[in-house]
């Protein structure tokens, strides 16, 4: 059993100074258990601070969760405890939480479907800090509506991920595909391509793997598709497997279990810079980001077809 986190003097002072923990539960559409429980001790952020974050970002977050299948990472003690993954709908969610029956090797799972604020707050109340989403919607789990390129820097440096992201972005531009970058909320980056529903998961995965392999061959000192960590050296790993059936990636605008409580921030390409500190996008200053224009505002207006792009890659 994970130890129960204790509020640090800094955390207690922050809670007392803001008064958030006492007032916030009355403004939320669900009952919050242990609202003053500290999830980020160094910063003093409580569980209810996390729920209020999701209320603030919901207008931008919601479209990426609507009717989308979720995989749950539960961290009931925040930064101080262990986490575990759960695919089955847990007890404690609102009774009308939507689910989708998903068949797999071990049977059938009642998978939670996102899209309602009450669902998101219920999950956060159960310790789901991050939001892990499928690339497809519940109505057709084998028909993704985006491609995701997950850039994992072996050095642990976001600067390397940013440089790799720029290479991926140029390749997608050459293929005449729309590309949207974001921080992962941790050390890496993601590049999303919104696509027209049609190709099966296996076809989308093949596209992502093929392009990743071509890029790794073109930039062998910077990029790799090597699955073995020990063989990657200092190169950035292009993880195309995020596009496999049932695989997930953290959504835009979701918090991460990391110091400073960063979130996965949608970026404009001009912001993709090796000097960028991804933790600068965090719970404490999200209002500033929300007040600025949304760099992904037109994301769903540019759904692309992979057919021509796949043909072009195969000719390389």
Radius of gyration equals: 20 Å
Anisotropy-based shape: globular
Q: Which regions are unreliable across 5 or more consecutive residues at pLDDT < 50?
A: 1-26
| Beta-strand percent range | 15-25%
The helical percent reads: 25-40%
Major sheet size, sense and barrel closure: 5 strands, mixed
Quick one: how many beta strands? 13
Give the overall pLDDT as a whole number: 92
Helices and strands: which structural class? Answer: alpha+beta
| Widest β-sheet, arrangement of strands | 9-10-8-12-11
Q: What pattern of helices and strands is seen along the backbone? A: HHEEHEEEEHEEHEEHEEEHH
Report, as a whole number of angstroms, the end-to-end distance: 53 Å
Q: Please work out how many helical segments DSSP would assign.
A: 8
Structure description:
The protein is an alpha+beta fold. The protein contains 8 helices and 13 strands. The chain has helices at residues 9-18, 20-23, 47-65, 117-125, 158-174, 201-218, 286-291, 307-315, and strands at residues 38-40, 45-46, 68-74, 84-86, 99-104, 107-112, 132-137, 146-153, 180-183, 189-194, 223-224, 236-239, 249-250. The strands form 4 sheets. Strands 9-10-8-12-11 form a 5-stranded mixed β-sheet. Strands 4-3-7-13 form a 4-stranded antiparallel β-sheet, with no helix packed on it. Strand 9 (180-183) and strand 10 (189-194) form a beta hairpin. Helix 3 (47-65) runs antiparallel to helix 4 and helix 6 runs parallel beside helix 8 (307-315). The longest helix is centred in the first third of the chain and has 19 residues, at 47-65. The protein starts with 8 loop residues before the first helix and ends with a helix.
């Amino acid at each position: 059993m994970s130890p129960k986190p204790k509020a640090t003097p800094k955390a207690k002072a922050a809670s007392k100074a803001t008064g958030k923990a006492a007032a916030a539960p009355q403004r939320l559409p669900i009952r919050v258990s242990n609202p003053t429980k500290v999830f980020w001790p160094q910063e003093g952020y409580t569980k209810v601070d996390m729920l209020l974050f999701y209320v603030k970002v919901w207008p931008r977050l919601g479209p990426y969760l609507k009717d989308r299948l979720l995989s749950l990472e539960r961290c009931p003690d925040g930064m101080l405890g262990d986490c575990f993954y759960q695919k089955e709908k847990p007890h404690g969610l609102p009774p009308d939480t939507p689910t989708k029956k998903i068949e797999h090797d071990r049977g059938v799972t009642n998978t939670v479907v996102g899209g309602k604020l009450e669902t998101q707050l219920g999950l956060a109340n159960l310790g789901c800090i991050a939001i892990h989403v499928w690339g497809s919607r519940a109505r057709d789990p084998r028909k993704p509506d985006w491609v995701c390129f997950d850039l994992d820097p072996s050095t642990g440096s976001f600067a390397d991920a940013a440089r790799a992201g720029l290479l991926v972005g140029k390749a997608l531009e050459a293929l005449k595909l729309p590309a949207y970058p974001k921080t992962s909320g941790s050390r890496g980056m993601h590049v999303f391509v919104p696509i027209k529903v049609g190709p099966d998961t296996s076809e989308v995965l093949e596209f992502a793997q093929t392009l990743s392999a071509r890029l790794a061959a073109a930039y062998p000192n910077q990029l790799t598709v090597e699955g073995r960590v020990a063989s990657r050296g200092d190169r950035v790993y292009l993880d195309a497997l995020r596009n496999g059936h049932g695989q997930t990636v953290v959504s835009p605008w979701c918090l991460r279990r990391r110091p400073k409580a960063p979130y996965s921030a949608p970026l404009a390409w001009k912001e993709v810079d090796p000097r960028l500190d991804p933790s600068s996008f965090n719970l404490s200053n999200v209002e500033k980001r929300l007040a600025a224009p949304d760099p992904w505002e037109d994301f769903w207006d540019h759904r692309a077809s992979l057919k021509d792009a796949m043909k072009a890659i195969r000719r390389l």
